[in-house]
Amino acid sequence: MSIQIFILGALSEGNCYPYDIKKQIGKHLEQTEAKITEGTIYYNFEVLHKKGLIEKIETIQSENRPDKTMYGITDQGRLALEESIYKVFQKFTTIQSLYAALVNLDKVDNQKIAYLIEDIIVKQRKKLDYIDEQKPEEIEVSEDLMDALWLMRDHAYHTIESNIAWLEKLLHHVQSRALRH
To answer: Per the count of CB atoms within 10 A, which of 11, 141, 168, 173 is most buried?
Structure first.
């Protein structure tokens, strides 16, 4: 879904070729370990085209080269982009799962996104409370396994704490955008 959000977001800015979008996505992914192949891009273009979310604008044919097709977003595609961004926040799994939506926040209602982020923060805090309630020392296991349980608990706790801190920064950013508009 995130690649499709990138594609729809890019096309909402103007018509372009799949290769141009691959370069744009590549720039966004430079900071991560993720790689996108041309096959993945073209496959997702085909899926979006079949769903009626994008349309072929122009096909350029030249000798000794494959056809080059320019695409544009449809009205249905604009609605799907907005819905997809909201869905990413509603089905939050990791911070990385939000990346495609983050570069397209200008295409959604910032107040609605702020509400969704607040909901994520509440759920993350509930996870911290749950971890706090768990007492590995009450489980009868070997000392090595006990050490592993404490390490896993510690990692999970600090990861969630870090996520909450980042989400609070994002919330502040989104709320300040909402005030400007």
So the answer is: 11
